[in-house]
Design goal:
The protein is of the alpha+beta class and 264 residues long. It is built from five helices and 14 strands. 20% of the residues lie in helices and 32% in strands. It has an eight-stranded antiparallel beta sheet with strand order 7-8-10-9-11-6-5-14. It has a four-stranded antiparallel beta sheet with strand order 2-3-1-4. Helix 1 packs antiparallel against helix 3. The chain is elongated, with a radius of gyration of 22 Å.
Length: 264
């Protein structure tokens, strides 16, 4: 990911002009497909060294960022709103490492996923902390359903709940959080009870598109390759049974050996 920052010093420093420019910049996300995210805000410090409007754009790679510079909509914004009022500007860009998780199973297989810390930072931070602390080591995928999902990260092979993980904010639209990630095949999402802020450590991986979950559960990652999705699907197809209060439990435990967190 690349984050590009442009800071504008304006001749017309009125509040109306700053707001109009910020609104126009913000509208680019709906017009330029390569924009991952865009934020525009005004700097009211009043210092001669400060800037009046700061534009922050995020792209998947440098090629997308460079193509955006000549996109007709961006050119129109600059021509209509910036050129006539810009006294000076300064720009800088920097690379944001993407965050990944590799879920290693005790049978030697693994699943690799990209984590969406820009869309679900609380969920990602919680997952990363637990993984780095070794919380998931030895836990199982205790609920698997063909053509739906596989769920794990909370119980051991004896179906004993592992405590110690605290509830976190549910990052999904019905809970007031702007997370537009869809529950497509390969998506990682936080499991919860009927209480919206009840997710702790358990997560699930979709093995099919499940749009009825969109906006109701915190999608925080997605498998990055077909091999990882194939592993998830194969887990969803193993023979299952009922044990005590639990249904859809794999007859042969699917054990998480370790979850490795890394950046690229």
């Amino acid at each position: 990911m690349i984050k590009h920052i442009v800071m504008y010093r304006l001749k017309d420093r009125s509040e109306d002009n700053k707001k109009a420019l910020c609104d126009k910049f913000s509208s680019m996300k709906g017009k330029i497909d390569t924009l991952v995210d865009v934020t525009a805000g005004a700097d009211f410090l009043g210092s001669e060294r400060s800037f009046d409007v700061v534009l922050i754009t995020t792209f998947k790679n440098r090629a997308d960022m460079e193509a955006y510079q000549s996109h007709p909509y961006h050119v129109d914004v600059v021509k209509s709103y910036v050129k006539s009022v810009t006294e000076s500007s300064h720009s800088v860009d920097y690379i944001i490492p993407e965050l990944f998780a590799r879920i290693d199973l005790s049978d030697g297989r693994s699943m690799r996923a990209k984590l969406f810390r820009d869309k679900a930072p609380i969920s990602v931070d919680n997952f990363v902390k637990l993984a780095k602390d070794g919380f998931y080591n030895g836990l199982i995928f205790h609920r698997v359903i063909r053509n739906f999902m596989i769920q794990g990260g909370g119980m051991n092979e004896n179906l004993e709940q592992k405590g110690g993980a605290k509830p976190i904010k549910g990052e999904f639209s019905s809970n007031g959080v702007n997370n537009d990630e869809k529950h497509t095949v390969g998506t990682l999402s936080m499991a919860r009870t009927m209480v919206k802020d009840s997710a702790t450590s358990q997560f699930f991986i979709c093995v099919a598109d499940t749009p009825h979950l969109d906006g109701e559960y915190a999608a925080f990652g997605r498998c990055v390759d077909s091999d990882s999705i194939a592993v998830a699907k194969s887990i969803s197809e193993v023979p299952t049974t009922s044990k005590g209060y639990y249904q859809d439990v794999p007859k042969t435990p699917i054990v998480i050996k370790n979850i490795e967190i890394f950046e690229e």
